[in-house]
Design a protein that fits this description.
It is built from 13 helices and no strands. The protein has helices at residues 2-11, 18-32, 43-56, 58-71, 75-80, 83-89, 95-112, 118-121, 125-134, 140-151, 160-168, 178-188, 194-207.
């Protein structure tokens, strides 16, 4: 059902070249299944989920979030924890990513005197983007991921996984940059498919379609791939 809905939404978007993007999304959904949404979580949890999702997609980020919640009482405890304790709690998460979480939490704490994200929820997208940028903890992609996942803004982050998958599927030129790939993806996909494609592309990019030594032998979407492991 998720596959048919994705194809229908993208086909109805009226975007030029939408059919190849719809086919790519449908293939990723068949290979991995729809990522489990965590929209019922607290908004601060969703902000942290968005930052974690850049590594391997939303499905894995959900699992990491659950592991953190079992080890730490709340996000304030994460903020003041030693980095080595965070790494011990979720050893799969790169230390740099954990540092991003702490930097974001600390930036929020210093800016507003706590970790209340309610003011962020009341902002317009442009205001929220400026507020997050002001914290100086996240790069542009991560800011857009927070807007998309935590606030429901129809934006598409320029992720490395998205760009790599789009290049290898032949959806964008072989030498397209992350930003160029993102712009073409935004035109080819329906806005309601942005989050799903971003997450699945990130998951596929980490699990199979790695930059170095891609696992082509076990790739379930290889029929769509134009690179055949040569890039």
């Amino acid at each position: 059902m998720a596959i048919a809905a994705a194809e229908k939404a993208t086909a109805q978007s009226g975007a030029k070249g939408s059919r190849p993007w719809a086919a790519a999304l449908a293939a990723l959904l068949r290979a991995y299944g729809a990522p489990r949404r965590a929209d019922g979580r607290k908004k601060l949890d969703l902000v942290m989920l968005a930052v974690l999702a850049e590594e391997r997609g939303e499905r894995t980020a959900n699992r990491w979030l659950e592991e953190l919640s079992r080890r730490f009482v709340d996000w304030n405890e994460v903020r003041v924890a030693r980095l080595r304790d965070l790494a011990a709690a979720v050893p799969e998460v790169p230390a740099k990513r954990l540092g991003k979480l702490q930097a974001l939490l600390q930036g929020m704490y210093e800016l507003i005197g706590g970790l209340d994200v309610n003011p962020l929820l009341a902002m317009k997208p442009s205001e929220a983007r400026a507020w997050l940028t002001r914290l100086e903890a996240l790069d542009r992609e991560e800011v857009e991921a927070v807007l998309m996942i935590a606030l429901g803004v129809p934006t598409l982050p320029a992720g490395e996984g998205l760009a790599r998958v789009a290049r290898r599927f032949g959806l964008v030129p072989r030498k397209a940059t992350r930003v160029q790939s993102q712009r073409l993806a935004a035109k080819g996909l329906a806005p309601e498919s942005y989050r799903e494609f971003y997450s699945l592309a990130g998951e596929h990019g980490a699990a199979r379609c790695r930059e170095a030594r891609p696992d082509c032998g076990r790739c379930q979407v290889r029929p769509l791939c134009r690179s055949r492991g040569r890039w």
